[in-house]
Amino acid sequence: MKKFVLLLLVIAIIGSTFADCSAASKPKKLPVLKVAIMPFLLSLPVKYMVDRGWDKENGFKIETILFSTGAPMNEALGAGLWDVATIGTAAVTTISVYNAKLIAETSDAAGGIELFARPDSPIAKVKGFNPTFPTLMGNPETVRGKTILMPIGTIVQLMALKWEEKIGVKDKEVNSVNMEYATAFQAFNSGQGDLVALNPPLSFMAHEKGWVSVCNLNDLKIPQYDNVLASSNAYEKKKNLLVKFVRLMYRANAELKKNPALEAKELSAWYKQNGQNVDEKLVKAEVASRPLLTAEDARKKPLGDAMKTTAEFMASIGKLQTDKLPIFDKNIVNDVLKAALRK
């Protein structure tokens, strides 16, 4: 009888030990951060950090949700489908309509935003009309009455309006035709219009065709950045994860930025993964002209100035109600960024 009791006791101890081992080996469920991304350079750092498991190393899990552009990304936020996003100028709507918070900026997006004329255009023969902006081409005589192909209500329209202003032309003195970038490129290539406003990689292709760059955002001193937005819910309930995310994003940016060959390789793979076969030369041009921001870069600049400029532009052309502008002062917040940048 004693032997039987002893046997039961041993079995119980062994069973308890295995149960404890099983519980210990069961992976801990990590908190999730849902990240909205696009198949472009602005989201490459997110892919880079997830591929290397940095999120899990830091006690959380990133779940990415891919969108083609910012518009469906905004609609998804309306349905509460993401916590944080990398997004471009569509952030104006995200902030003003969906109450998102601008918590960081990820890349300098001004590079490659350009206005082009044909080589034989009179516009391309005049340079330096405004001595304060000596690289700009064109003057009132060569520009009045001309037709610009571009997507209305985007950053390129802001560029075109500022260019017109600097060379002494009123917007009503030119014809603006609304076309998406790819359509505008093809139309201009077939002989339509006098000018075309493009973004990468189409702007790089325009250079290869010999089209003349009349102006760009950098010439006009218009800053433009890709943004990191948080939903109001995530900002209130997942702030610690947002801090970790921003810190890891700048870590990824630093690794990629210091090695342009690696960044180009990663970006090319990211494009291919999403069904885009972009020429290697164009990828390298994009990497060179649209630098990622590092933590050091973020420490040196105020957050959100470019976003406010874009919002004011949208209001000036009726794409944003003027009474929405104060929202940007409230929803551009720097507490997450400050925490992420602490050494």
UniProtKB/TrEMBL annotation:
Pfam families: NMT1 (PF09084). Gene3D superfamilies: Periplasmic binding protein-like II (3.40.190.10). Residues 1-19 form the signal peptide. This is NitT/TauT family transport system substrate-binding protein. Residues 140-261 form the SsuA/THI5-like domain. Keywords: Signal.
